[in-house]
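Pipeline run #58 for the internal structure catalog. This entry was flagged by the ingest filter as a single-chain record with no existing model, so it goes straight to prediction. Upstream metadata was stripped on purpose; only the residue string is passed forward. Reviewer on rotation: M.T. Logging verbosity set to normal.
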Amino acid sequence: MSTLARALIQSGLIPEEAVARCQLRALQRQTSLPAELVTATLIEAPAIARFIETTFGFAYVDLDPTHPMPACPGIELAPNPRFYPISLSGKRLRLAMADPTDDTLISGLRFQTGLEIDPCVADVTQLALCAAAVRNQGPLPSSNGLRNSSDTAVDEAPVVRFLQKTLSVAIERGASDIHFEPYENSYRVRYRIDGVLRAQESPPDQFKDMVASRLKVLSKLDIAEKRLPQDGQLRAEADDGTLIDLRISTMPTLYGEKIVLRILDRQDARLGLSEIGLSPAQLDQLTQAIHQPSGMVLVTGPTGSGKTVTLYACLNALNQPGVNIATVEDPVEIPVVGINQVNIDERTGLTFAVALRAFMRQDPDILMVGEIRDAETAETSLKAAQTGHLVLSTLHTRSAPATLERLRQLGLPNYGVAGSVLLIVAQRLVRRLCECRIADKPVAALLHDAGFTDADVHALDTGQWTLYKANGCSKCHQTGYKGRVGIFEVMRVSPAIQKSMLNDGSTLDIAQQAAQEGSNSLRRAGLDKVMAGLTSLSEVLSETEATEDRRG
């Protein structure tokens, strides 16, 4: 059943049996569902067009049969047409369609013409009149990319304009996510900028259903399914013509579907290890670990801490023609040339563990597992590391030493973990101070409580470094921060740590041993960024735990 058919049935506008009959006739006659519904006098042509406009957010176009149709190679109009070309500009063809949710038809036209298709909705009777006028005119006139009033109709559809503006603002401000949140009498839009959600001007309440429908159509999700969460991806065009990849997640709530768009920045996938914020010593340790022929390198931290960026930076350093690299992700956020990337799909049984086992038969050198979530994935990853493969993955733990305990909780034996894990990176993202920063000088007691040493405080008092705090200006939208910087705890699994694990050493025992070997805690790494003037003390205190720096 088509997207439009499901929406009509769900709305209760037309009985399900009548919709099914008309859809079958449309398939048999190669016409559109709206045309068959109108023929069967189940609905009037303007009404079905307006239903599509309101439900899915497509612009409504009032067609003029006297206006010349642009010449489009590969386009042929049937006596009862399902579409009518409005304008051709460069490689983009705008089509008035009886059913603009018909992805099969759009894909076919895209293949036939080699053009990108921008669909809008029109009255089926007007489509027929336009097609008849063209047939009566004889040969089609040549096209000079002439635009008419119908072109602006697409751009000026309220929902389309709203979404385009929202995306533009998000990109301009460097947002990572856009939240569309329906409530009983309001509709809220928030941007996550530098890790903090910020509310924007709210659109009209009636937009909530149209926004959800529009985004689901663009990402090829089930428009009629509003009871279950859905995930998908889409590509949008920014104001400057740049193509932006977006990941969409829908969630049914009390007053409608909440939609979250994740803006996927391809630039992040091209970062090198030297650009992610590691200290020289940490960079050297990580570089040595990822160039080992086998073993596990793990990156830990909460959601949104930049773990994926770190893994991609590692893969970029390893991506060579002579190396077979495979990744298993949920989902693949950023495509990378030269790497075999797989989306897991638990609905079809393609889990992390299943994909890993399949990749083991494909002669891999390096495997990247998006996340170790369960015992089966953990066991399969460990076996891969033990059989001559380098495995990169992530976990959700608060620190590097706690990661080893987490692996034991997943059922991995101490000897297996101790013998296979090479290095663990724990990380957080803290907001970077804007250039409008101002100097700050809190009392010495606060500095000591934060974790600064007596030597650090003395160096501050003697002017060897300056403590800064956020101020606010137009460039940072009065927040005092612009961008983020990573703080890292890098722990090499040394022979001494291996021995501690084999003796069932606790997380504290492992942390103390790591500290003795020179591994900085996240808190200490954050304080170093404060001393460098990159972030504020309040940011570090909010993102790290004081106990992390008290290892005994």
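catalog note: The two ends are 65 Å apart (CA to CA).
catalog note: Residues 3-156 form a domain with the GMP Synthetase; Chain A, domain 3 fold (CATH 3.30.300.160).
status: ready for reviewer M.T.
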